[in-house]
Specification:
The protein is an alpha/beta fold. It folds into two domains: 100 residues, Urease, subunit C, domain 1; 306 residues, Metal-dependent hydrolases (TIM Barrel, Alpha-Beta Barrel), CATH 3.20.20.140. Helices cover 29% and strands 22% of the residues. α6 packs parallel to α7 and α7 runs parallel beside α9. The longest helix has 17 residues. The protein is globular and about 65 Å long.
Length: 429
Protein backbone atom coordinates (compact mmCIF):
# COMPACT_ATOMS: atom_id res chain seq x y z
CA UNK A 1 0.00 0.00 0.00
CA UNK A 2 1.10 3.55 -0.81
CA UNK A 3 0.44 5.92 2.08
CA UNK A 4 1.01 9.67 2.16
CA UNK A 5 1.37 11.68 5.34
CA UNK A 6 0.96 15.30 4.31
CA UNK A 7 1.33 18.64 6.05
CA UNK A 8 3.45 17.33 8.87
CA UNK A 9 6.38 18.98 10.62
CA UNK A 10 9.67 17.38 11.61
CA UNK A 11 12.47 18.79 13.75
CA UNK A 12 15.83 19.50 12.11
CA UNK A 13 19.33 19.35 13.57
CA UNK A 14 19.14 23.01 14.49
CA UNK A 15 15.84 22.46 16.35
CA UNK A 16 13.84 24.11 13.58
CA UNK A 17 10.48 22.68 12.51
CA UNK A 18 10.23 21.93 8.80
CA UNK A 19 7.01 21.14 6.92
CA UNK A 20 7.21 17.86 4.96
CA UNK A 21 5.19 15.10 3.32
CA UNK A 22 6.23 11.48 3.90
CA UNK A 23 5.62 8.79 1.29
CA UNK A 24 5.29 5.28 2.71
CA UNK A 25 5.51 2.28 0.38
CA UNK A 26 5.35 -1.39 1.36
CA UNK A 27 5.96 -0.60 5.01
CA UNK A 28 9.05 1.54 4.46
CA UNK A 29 9.74 5.25 4.08
CA UNK A 30 9.99 5.76 0.33
CA UNK A 31 10.49 9.52 0.17
CA UNK A 32 10.43 12.65 2.32
CA UNK A 33 9.65 15.87 0.48
CA UNK A 34 6.91 18.31 -0.40
CA UNK A 35 3.82 18.47 -2.58
CA UNK A 36 3.37 14.85 -3.59
CA UNK A 37 0.15 14.27 -5.58
CA UNK A 38 -2.25 12.96 -2.94
CA UNK A 39 -4.61 11.55 -5.56
CA UNK A 40 -2.11 8.83 -6.47
CA UNK A 41 -2.06 7.35 -2.95
CA UNK A 42 -4.31 4.63 -1.56
CA UNK A 43 -4.24 6.17 1.92
CA UNK A 44 -3.71 9.81 2.86
CA UNK A 45 -3.16 11.03 6.42
CA UNK A 46 -3.38 14.79 6.89
CA UNK A 47 -1.09 15.68 9.79
CA UNK A 48 -2.58 19.22 9.82
CA UNK A 49 0.70 20.85 10.81
CA UNK A 50 1.28 18.50 13.72
CA UNK A 51 4.65 17.14 14.81
CA UNK A 52 6.00 13.92 13.24
CA UNK A 53 8.72 11.91 14.96
CA UNK A 54 10.38 8.60 14.36
CA UNK A 55 8.45 6.00 16.33
CA UNK A 56 9.54 6.31 19.96
CA UNK A 57 11.67 3.53 21.45
CA UNK A 58 11.15 2.42 25.06
CA UNK A 59 13.81 0.05 26.37
CA UNK A 60 12.00 -0.66 29.64
CA UNK A 61 8.41 -1.95 29.91
CA UNK A 62 6.61 -4.67 31.85
CA UNK A 63 3.84 -6.49 29.99
CA UNK A 64 3.11 -9.13 32.70
CA UNK A 65 2.26 -11.97 30.32
CA UNK A 66 2.45 -14.84 31.10
CA UNK A 67 1.59 -15.07 34.76
CA UNK A 68 0.04 -11.74 35.68
CA UNK A 69 -2.48 -11.05 32.95
CA UNK A 70 -4.87 -9.38 35.40
CA UNK A 71 -2.35 -6.48 35.41
CA UNK A 72 -1.47 -6.37 31.70
CA UNK A 73 -1.11 -8.48 28.57
CA UNK A 74 1.22 -8.19 25.61
CA UNK A 75 -1.79 -7.04 23.58
CA UNK A 76 -2.95 -4.30 25.99
CA UNK A 77 0.58 -3.22 26.88
CA UNK A 78 1.54 -2.84 23.23
CA UNK A 79 -1.71 -0.94 22.56
CA UNK A 80 -0.83 1.43 25.40
CA UNK A 81 2.64 1.88 23.92
CA UNK A 82 1.17 2.70 20.50
CA UNK A 83 -1.11 5.25 22.11
CA UNK A 84 1.93 6.94 23.58
CA UNK A 85 3.71 7.08 20.22
CA UNK A 86 6.06 4.14 20.85
CA UNK A 87 6.68 1.73 18.00
CA UNK A 88 9.46 -0.38 19.54
CA UNK A 89 9.50 -1.49 23.19
CA UNK A 90 11.68 -3.87 25.17
CA UNK A 91 9.84 -6.13 27.61
CA UNK A 92 11.26 -7.27 30.95
CA UNK A 93 11.36 -10.96 31.95
CA UNK A 94 9.86 -10.84 35.48
CA UNK A 95 7.06 -13.14 34.37
CA UNK A 96 5.64 -16.46 35.54
CA UNK A 97 7.15 -18.68 34.41
CA UNK A 98 10.32 -16.66 33.99
CA UNK A 99 11.55 -17.11 30.39
CA UNK A 100 14.84 -18.57 31.61
CA UNK A 101 14.99 -21.48 29.16
CA UNK A 102 14.84 -21.51 25.40
CA UNK A 103 11.46 -23.24 25.54
CA UNK A 104 9.91 -20.73 27.93
CA UNK A 105 11.40 -17.81 26.00
CA UNK A 106 9.94 -19.13 22.75
CA UNK A 107 6.50 -19.41 24.36
CA UNK A 108 6.58 -15.70 25.21
CA UNK A 109 7.77 -14.91 21.70
CA UNK A 110 4.78 -16.77 20.27
CA UNK A 111 2.42 -14.51 22.22
CA UNK A 112 4.32 -11.43 21.02
CA UNK A 113 4.12 -12.58 17.41
CA UNK A 114 0.39 -13.20 17.79
CA UNK A 115 -0.81 -10.22 19.84
CA UNK A 116 1.60 -7.27 19.80
CA UNK A 117 0.62 -4.17 17.79
CA UNK A 118 4.09 -2.62 18.11
CA UNK A 119 7.54 -4.20 17.86
CA UNK A 120 8.25 -5.96 21.16
CA UNK A 121 11.80 -7.10 21.90
CA UNK A 122 11.92 -9.59 24.76
CA UNK A 123 14.63 -9.59 27.41
CA UNK A 124 15.93 -12.84 28.84
CA UNK A 125 16.87 -13.12 32.53
CA UNK A 126 20.48 -13.24 33.68
CA UNK A 127 19.92 -16.04 36.18
CA UNK A 128 17.42 -18.85 36.59
CA UNK A 129 14.13 -17.64 38.10
CA UNK A 130 15.69 -14.16 38.49
CA UNK A 131 16.54 -14.70 42.16
CA UNK A 132 19.07 -17.53 41.84
CA UNK A 133 22.83 -17.45 41.37
CA UNK A 134 22.69 -19.94 38.49
CA UNK A 135 23.27 -18.46 35.03
CA UNK A 136 20.81 -19.12 32.20
CA UNK A 137 21.84 -20.59 28.84
CA UNK A 138 23.22 -17.40 27.28
CA UNK A 139 24.14 -19.09 24.00
CA UNK A 140 20.76 -20.73 23.53
CA UNK A 141 18.71 -17.71 24.56
CA UNK A 142 20.70 -15.45 22.28
CA UNK A 143 20.01 -17.78 19.37
CA UNK A 144 16.33 -17.82 20.38
CA UNK A 145 16.19 -14.04 19.97
CA UNK A 146 16.88 -12.57 23.39
CA UNK A 147 17.28 -8.83 22.97
CA UNK A 148 19.52 -8.46 26.04
CA UNK A 149 19.86 -9.94 29.54
CA UNK A 150 18.45 -8.48 32.75
CA UNK A 151 17.01 -9.42 36.13
CA UNK A 152 15.00 -6.21 36.26
CA UNK A 153 13.11 -5.90 39.51
CA UNK A 154 15.83 -7.82 41.31
CA UNK A 155 19.39 -6.67 41.91
CA UNK A 156 22.10 -9.29 41.40
CA UNK A 157 23.41 -9.61 44.93
CA UNK A 158 26.65 -11.50 44.33
CA UNK A 159 29.54 -9.86 42.51
CA UNK A 160 30.78 -13.20 41.17
CA UNK A 161 27.41 -13.94 39.59
CA UNK A 162 27.33 -10.53 37.93
CA UNK A 163 30.90 -11.02 36.66
CA UNK A 164 30.08 -14.39 35.09
CA UNK A 165 26.85 -13.00 33.59
CA UNK A 166 28.80 -10.14 32.02
CA UNK A 167 31.33 -12.55 30.53
CA UNK A 168 28.56 -14.71 29.06
CA UNK A 169 26.71 -11.70 27.64
CA UNK A 170 29.88 -10.22 26.14
CA UNK A 171 30.69 -13.57 24.48
CA UNK A 172 27.26 -13.42 22.77
CA UNK A 173 27.52 -9.70 21.89
CA UNK A 174 24.61 -8.89 24.18
CA UNK A 175 24.12 -6.20 26.81
CA UNK A 176 23.68 -6.54 30.55
CA UNK A 177 20.81 -4.32 31.67
CA UNK A 178 20.82 -3.81 35.41
CA UNK A 179 18.27 -3.00 38.05
CA UNK A 180 20.74 -2.05 40.76
CA UNK A 181 19.59 -2.69 44.30
CA UNK A 182 21.70 -3.98 47.18
CA UNK A 183 19.13 -5.82 49.28
CA UNK A 184 21.38 -5.69 52.35
CA UNK A 185 20.89 -1.91 52.32
CA UNK A 186 17.11 -1.93 51.88
CA UNK A 187 16.07 -2.26 55.54
CA UNK A 188 12.43 -2.79 54.44
CA UNK A 189 12.37 0.69 52.88
CA UNK A 190 9.40 1.73 50.74
CA UNK A 191 10.23 5.34 49.77
CA UNK A 192 13.23 7.64 49.62
CA UNK A 193 14.96 8.12 52.96
CA UNK A 194 14.52 11.78 53.80
CA UNK A 195 12.41 14.40 55.46
CA UNK A 196 9.20 13.23 53.75
CA UNK A 197 9.65 9.60 54.81
CA UNK A 198 10.11 10.82 58.37
CA UNK A 199 6.96 12.96 58.15
CA UNK A 200 4.90 10.02 56.86
CA UNK A 201 6.45 7.57 59.32
CA UNK A 202 7.58 5.24 56.52
CA UNK A 203 10.86 3.29 56.27
CA UNK A 204 13.25 4.92 53.83
CA UNK A 205 15.47 3.65 50.99
CA UNK A 206 18.99 5.10 50.90
CA UNK A 207 20.38 6.31 47.59
CA UNK A 208 23.36 4.04 48.27
CA UNK A 209 21.06 1.05 47.83
CA UNK A 210 21.14 1.89 44.11
CA UNK A 211 24.48 3.60 43.61
CA UNK A 212 26.68 1.11 45.49
CA UNK A 213 25.77 -1.68 43.07
CA UNK A 214 26.36 0.58 40.09
CA UNK A 215 29.86 1.27 41.40
CA UNK A 216 30.53 -2.47 41.78
CA UNK A 217 29.15 -3.29 38.36
CA UNK A 218 31.09 -0.55 36.57
CA UNK A 219 34.38 -2.09 37.68
CA UNK A 220 33.16 -5.51 36.54
CA UNK A 221 32.05 -4.04 33.20
CA UNK A 222 35.52 -2.56 32.78
CA UNK A 223 37.03 -5.96 33.52
CA UNK A 224 34.79 -7.88 31.08
CA UNK A 225 34.27 -5.27 28.35
CA UNK A 226 30.52 -5.89 28.29
CA UNK A 227 28.04 -3.15 27.36
CA UNK A 228 26.45 -2.35 30.71
CA UNK A 229 23.17 -0.40 30.76
CA UNK A 230 21.74 0.95 34.01
CA UNK A 231 17.96 1.02 34.43
CA UNK A 232 16.03 3.98 35.88
CA UNK A 233 18.86 6.03 37.39
CA UNK A 234 17.42 8.10 40.24
CA UNK A 235 20.14 9.54 42.49
CA UNK A 236 22.82 12.20 42.24
CA UNK A 237 25.43 9.65 43.38
CA UNK A 238 24.49 7.31 40.54
CA UNK A 239 24.80 10.12 38.00
CA UNK A 240 28.20 11.09 39.41
CA UNK A 241 29.75 7.62 39.24
CA UNK A 242 28.35 6.92 35.76
CA UNK A 243 29.79 10.23 34.56
CA UNK A 244 33.18 9.27 35.97
CA UNK A 245 32.96 5.81 34.40
CA UNK A 246 32.24 7.26 30.97
CA UNK A 247 35.22 9.57 31.33
CA UNK A 248 37.31 6.49 32.13
CA UNK A 249 36.17 4.80 28.90
CA UNK A 250 33.90 2.15 30.44
CA UNK A 251 31.16 0.94 28.07
CA UNK A 252 28.19 2.13 30.13
CA UNK A 253 24.87 3.71 29.20
CA UNK A 254 21.84 4.53 31.32
CA UNK A 255 18.24 5.67 31.29
CA UNK A 256 16.00 7.93 33.38
CA UNK A 257 12.22 7.80 33.78
CA UNK A 258 9.90 10.77 33.24
CA UNK A 259 8.48 10.49 36.76
CA UNK A 260 11.92 10.95 38.32
CA UNK A 261 12.44 14.07 36.20
CA UNK A 262 9.08 15.62 37.03
CA UNK A 263 8.50 14.58 40.67
CA UNK A 264 10.43 14.39 43.94
CA UNK A 265 9.68 12.89 47.33
CA UNK A 266 8.33 16.18 48.68
CA UNK A 267 5.51 15.94 46.10
CA UNK A 268 4.09 12.81 47.76
CA UNK A 269 0.90 14.05 49.45
CA UNK A 270 0.06 11.04 51.62
CA UNK A 271 0.74 7.40 52.36
CA UNK A 272 -0.82 6.06 49.17
CA UNK A 273 0.61 3.24 47.03
CA UNK A 274 -0.02 5.08 43.76
CA UNK A 275 3.11 7.09 44.61
CA UNK A 276 5.27 4.02 45.30
CA UNK A 277 7.86 3.19 42.69
CA UNK A 278 11.29 1.56 42.53
CA UNK A 279 13.60 3.39 42.60
CA UNK A 280 11.57 5.82 44.68
CA UNK A 281 11.00 9.48 44.01
CA UNK A 282 14.14 11.11 45.37
CA UNK A 283 15.06 14.53 46.74
CA UNK A 284 15.22 17.84 44.87
CA UNK A 285 19.03 17.70 44.49
CA UNK A 286 18.68 14.23 42.91
CA UNK A 287 16.06 15.55 40.50
CA UNK A 288 18.39 18.43 39.57
CA UNK A 289 21.25 15.97 38.98
CA UNK A 290 19.11 13.84 36.65
CA UNK A 291 18.22 16.85 34.51
CA UNK A 292 21.86 17.93 34.42
CA UNK A 293 22.87 14.36 33.55
CA UNK A 294 20.62 14.34 30.52
CA UNK A 295 21.87 17.71 29.34
CA UNK A 296 25.58 16.84 29.64
CA UNK A 297 25.24 13.37 28.08
CA UNK A 298 25.80 11.31 31.21
CA UNK A 299 22.26 9.94 30.93
CA UNK A 300 21.66 8.56 27.45
CA UNK A 301 17.93 8.12 27.09
CA UNK A 302 14.47 8.29 28.63
CA UNK A 303 12.50 5.08 29.33
CA UNK A 304 9.14 4.63 31.02
CA UNK A 305 9.50 1.56 33.28
CA UNK A 306 5.79 1.00 32.49
CA UNK A 307 4.78 -1.19 35.47
CA UNK A 308 1.06 -2.02 35.64
CA UNK A 309 -0.64 -3.31 38.80
CA UNK A 310 -4.28 -3.76 39.75
CA UNK A 311 -6.28 -1.06 41.54
CA UNK A 312 -6.60 -3.30 44.59
CA UNK A 313 -2.84 -3.82 44.81
CA UNK A 314 -1.98 -0.14 44.53
CA UNK A 315 -4.87 1.43 46.45
CA UNK A 316 -3.30 0.84 49.85
CA UNK A 317 -0.38 1.92 52.03
CA UNK A 318 3.20 2.22 50.78
CA UNK A 319 4.10 -0.69 53.05
CA UNK A 320 1.62 -3.10 51.45
CA UNK A 321 1.56 -1.87 47.84
CA UNK A 322 3.85 -3.21 45.09
CA UNK A 323 6.32 -0.86 43.42
CA UNK A 324 5.59 0.73 40.03
CA UNK A 325 3.41 3.02 37.91
CA UNK A 326 2.13 2.88 34.33
CA UNK A 327 3.81 5.31 31.96
CA UNK A 328 3.55 4.39 28.29
CA UNK A 329 0.56 6.54 27.37
CA UNK A 330 1.82 9.94 28.49
CA UNK A 331 5.65 9.79 28.68
CA UNK A 332 6.46 11.98 25.67
CA UNK A 333 3.66 14.32 26.65
CA UNK A 334 4.98 14.68 30.20
CA UNK A 335 8.50 15.49 29.04
CA UNK A 336 7.29 17.87 26.33
CA UNK A 337 4.96 19.78 28.64
CA UNK A 338 7.30 20.13 31.61
CA UNK A 339 10.62 20.58 29.88
CA UNK A 340 10.24 21.66 26.23
CA UNK A 341 7.46 24.16 26.77
CA UNK A 342 9.40 25.58 29.72
CA UNK A 343 12.60 25.94 27.71
CA UNK A 344 14.71 23.46 29.69
CA UNK A 345 14.98 20.88 26.87
CA UNK A 346 14.64 21.32 23.13
CA UNK A 347 12.31 19.27 20.98
CA UNK A 348 15.33 17.93 19.13
CA UNK A 349 16.85 16.69 22.40
CA UNK A 350 13.66 14.89 23.43
CA UNK A 351 13.45 13.08 20.08
CA UNK A 352 17.09 12.12 20.54
CA UNK A 353 16.50 10.73 24.05
CA UNK A 354 13.23 8.95 23.27
CA UNK A 355 13.86 7.61 19.75
CA UNK A 356 17.36 7.99 18.30
CA UNK A 357 19.56 7.25 21.33
CA UNK A 358 17.79 4.15 22.69
CA UNK A 359 17.89 2.61 19.21
CA UNK A 360 21.57 3.46 18.81
CA UNK A 361 22.52 2.10 22.23
CA UNK A 362 21.18 -1.34 21.38
CA UNK A 363 21.83 -1.36 17.66
CA UNK A 364 18.16 -1.36 16.61
CA UNK A 365 16.81 -0.57 13.17
CA UNK A 366 14.52 2.06 14.65
CA UNK A 367 14.39 5.61 15.94
CA UNK A 368 15.02 7.52 12.70
CA UNK A 369 13.08 8.77 9.69
CA UNK A 370 15.32 7.45 6.92
CA UNK A 371 14.65 6.59 3.28
CA UNK A 372 14.38 2.82 3.02
CA UNK A 373 13.96 2.44 6.76
CA UNK A 374 10.86 1.06 8.50
CA UNK A 375 7.82 3.33 8.40
CA UNK A 376 7.61 3.51 12.19
CA UNK A 377 6.48 6.97 13.21
CA UNK A 378 4.17 8.97 15.43
CA UNK A 379 2.26 12.22 15.07
CA UNK A 380 1.73 14.50 18.07
CA UNK A 381 -0.53 17.51 18.63
CA UNK A 382 1.76 19.96 20.40
CA UNK A 383 -0.78 22.78 20.54
CA UNK A 384 -3.85 21.34 22.26
CA UNK A 385 -4.05 20.79 25.99
CA UNK A 386 -5.63 17.60 27.28
CA UNK A 387 -6.17 15.96 30.66
CA UNK A 388 -4.70 12.57 31.64
CA UNK A 389 -7.81 10.40 32.03
CA UNK A 390 -7.23 6.90 33.40
CA UNK A 391 -10.65 5.80 32.17
CA UNK A 392 -9.38 6.24 28.62
CA UNK A 393 -6.18 4.21 29.08
CA UNK A 394 -5.61 1.24 26.79
CA UNK A 395 -3.48 -0.40 29.48
CA UNK A 396 -5.39 -2.77 31.75
CA UNK A 397 -4.04 -0.84 34.73
CA UNK A 398 -4.41 2.75 35.89
CA UNK A 399 -1.80 3.00 38.66
CA UNK A 400 -0.33 6.45 38.23
CA UNK A 401 -0.29 9.64 40.30
CA UNK A 402 -0.58 11.73 37.11
CA UNK A 403 -4.34 11.34 36.62
CA UNK A 404 -5.91 14.75 36.10
CA UNK A 405 -2.68 16.43 35.03
CA UNK A 406 -2.95 18.80 32.06
CA UNK A 407 -0.50 18.01 29.28
CA UNK A 408 0.31 18.92 25.68
CA UNK A 409 1.49 16.66 22.87
CA UNK A 410 -1.28 14.08 22.67
CA UNK A 411 -0.61 11.29 20.16
CA UNK A 412 -2.91 11.50 17.16
CA UNK A 413 -1.51 8.71 14.95
CA UNK A 414 1.05 5.92 15.40
CA UNK A 415 2.22 3.75 12.51
CA UNK A 416 4.29 0.55 12.62
CA UNK A 417 5.69 -0.63 9.30
CA UNK A 418 3.28 1.79 7.65
CA UNK A 419 0.19 0.37 9.38
CA UNK A 420 -1.89 2.51 11.72
CA UNK A 421 -1.75 1.02 15.23
CA UNK A 422 -3.28 4.01 17.04
CA UNK A 423 -5.46 6.84 15.78
CA UNK A 424 -7.11 9.41 17.95
CA UNK A 425 -10.78 9.85 17.18
CA UNK A 426 -12.57 12.80 18.72
CA UNK A 427 -11.66 13.16 22.38
CA UNK A 428 -10.56 9.60 22.99
CA UNK A 429 -7.46 9.31 25.04
Amino acid sequence: MNTLIKNGRIVSHDNELTTVDIWIKEGKIHAIGESFNAETFEQVIDAKGQFITPGLVDVHVHFREPGFTYKETIETGSQAAARGGFTTVCAMPNLNPVPDTVERFEEVQKIIDRDAVVKVLQYAPMTENLHSETLVDYDGLTQAGAFAFTNDGVGVQTAGTMYLAMKAAAKNNRSIVAHTEDESLLFDGVMHLGKRSEELGLPGIMSATESSQIARDLLLAEETGVHYHVCHVSSKESVRIIREAKQAGINVTCEVCPHHLVLMDEDIPEDNGYWKMNPPLRASDDQKALIEGLLDGTIDCIATDHAPHSHEEKNQSFVDSPFGIVGSEYAFQMVYTHFVKTGIFTLEQVVDWMAIKPAEIFGLNAGRLTIGGPADLAIFDLETEYVVDDQQFLSKSINTPFVGWKLYGDTTVTLVDGKITWKKVGNNR
